[in-house]
Design brief:
single chain, about 200 residues, mainly alpha
Length: about 200
């Protein structure tokens, strides 16, 4: 799977990570609005029945995008010069933390939607506040982990490209365009394709 990501064309990755999730979201929203507008008496609870699909869209998006990140960070490690040590274990820990968090968050959202009580729509402020206290710090820590993962991915890419130790200034551009991945894929992936072709085949 790692080799497939590395050898994939930029337009293929763009369609997988951005195009397909966007199309699914458009279809889902269009279906939702069509259902609401055709009802003689609009039922606001219908929105909750459709919202349970959004975590699936997020899961698809994250699996593809993080799969691309993992392929660069881990798949290119064999091309890093032997005298350069990279903190791969640290990357793996920070890589999986936001994935676990997002899975738990999506599970919580689905449970909350399924448990929506139309007969008693009044929110429980105490429960909401307790969830917020737990989710708020975890959310920001997950953002930090994602940023670190992109930092490591960009550093690995530039280290392999230049075949020397690099500083942040050397790969700052790659870091930021990976942040804006719909643009970054078109710039980074062709270089990865060329890198894989020029260097010895991946094991």
């Amino acid at each position: 799977m790692t080799e497939r990501f590395l050898k994939a064309k930029h337009w293929q990755l763009f369609i997988l990570t951005f195009g397909i999730p966007l199309i699914f979201q458009i279809i889902l929203m269009s279906t939702l609005f069509a259902t609401i507008t055709t009802q003689t008496t609009p039922d606001p609870t219908i929105i909750f029945s459709y919202m349970k699909y959004f975590p699936l869209l997020m899961l698809l998006f994250m699996a593809l995008l993080f799969g691309w990140f993992w392929s660069i960070a881990i798949g290119l490690q064999k091309k890093v010069p032997q005298d350069i040590s990279m903190k791969v274990k640290k990357f793996k820990i920070f890589f999986f933390i936001p994935l676990v968090y997002l899975l738990l968050l999506m599970l919580f959202i689905n449970i909350a939607i399924d448990g929506f009580d139309t007969a008693n729509p009044e929110p429980n402020i105490a429960i909401i506040a307790s969830y917020f206290v737990i989710i708020f710090p975890l959310h920001f820590f997950s953002i930090f982990c994602i940023l670190y993962s992109m930092y490591f991915v960009a550093k690995t890419f530039k280290t392999v490209e230049l075949q020397r130790a690099v500083k942040f200034g050397d790969f700052a551009g790659e870091f930021f365009i990976m942040w804006f991945y719909p643009i970054g894929i078109w710039i980074i992936q062709p270089k990865i394709n060329k890198m894989v072709e020029e260097l010895s085949p991946l094991d």
